[in-house]
Please model this.
Amino acid sequence: MEDSVKVVQCYRTFFPESQGGLEQVVFEIARGAESDVLTLTDGGESQGEHGGVCYRSARRWFSIASCCVGPGLFKLLYKKAADVLHFHFPWPFGDLVYLLSGRSRPLVVTYHSDIVRQRFLGALYRPLMNRFLSRADRIVATSQNYLVSSPVLAAYRDKVKVIPLGISEQGYPEPTDAELAATELRFGRDFMLFVGVLRYYKGLDYLIRAAAGQPYRLVIAGKGPELGRLRALAEELGAENVVFAGFVSDEEKVALLKLCRAVVFPSHLRSEAFGVTLIEGLMCGKPLISCEIGTGTSYVNQDGETGHVVSPASPDALRWAMDNLWGDHALADRMGRAGRLRYEALFTGEHMAAAYQKLYREVLRERGVVE
Model:
């Protein structure tokens, strides 16, 4: 029997303080590979357990352009025992934490996204980024699509490995009949559904314009910095069929996924590298609508098979896709069944965790730590 590998993952946010797609990925890897998590929280230094995964946090002092900073993480990482350190990119402060406190331990970096919006800050950050990525033993791209289209990854292709993201169905609660009934009473059924953090690159203004005045509901579940602006837009358009559900629990989210007609994911910028919500849609047997932005979203959602992939930043294209699935229930069912099969074949949490376990051992063998 092989000795266990002690892995520590580092990312700027984690459960239970923050709930999002990337936090779910960190959790799935940690649970499958039996790793601990180091993170930052507003509440100060703490430790705990989430779903069997141990985490420890330092206090988050402030954030600049979505980059969380908490100097206490230097000490936590330096003292933490680990065979492999696993960081999630982009997080410039995390780069600095590894370079100053990682003690040259083996490094795996999951590359989730290019830096798209902060061009000036990105230019200042580039020397630190290049040093950090150069120190990595392996860089993981989440799809072949992103590897091919990323100018940053092109410089490190000799040490890049592709491991798609995945989620475990066992990690999601099954809503009771009462919870399903309560959700249906509030939102109805056969609506178009978006779930996620309301950020600038999610393309939700285009989605609201596409849905305004249509015969179906659009339910937007989640909170985030764009909420106020999006509410104002819906009110301006008179889009009474657009419903903002706010933050939803895991039970409510699964209930919404079961009741919806399709999952709509209108992200229009490369900051959206994959889209865990799309995998959740596949898992629940729902057809998908996404945009062609040259990233992993079009790897998850196969155009014409599991849903529709349309032009980005186009209300007309999004409206056509929603109308098509609204008007053809048989097509929606057929695409949903194909999506479920694609989830089982490619995107389970077990597949992802096993691939990372194999990668950790590869890295340690190359370092001469294990045979």
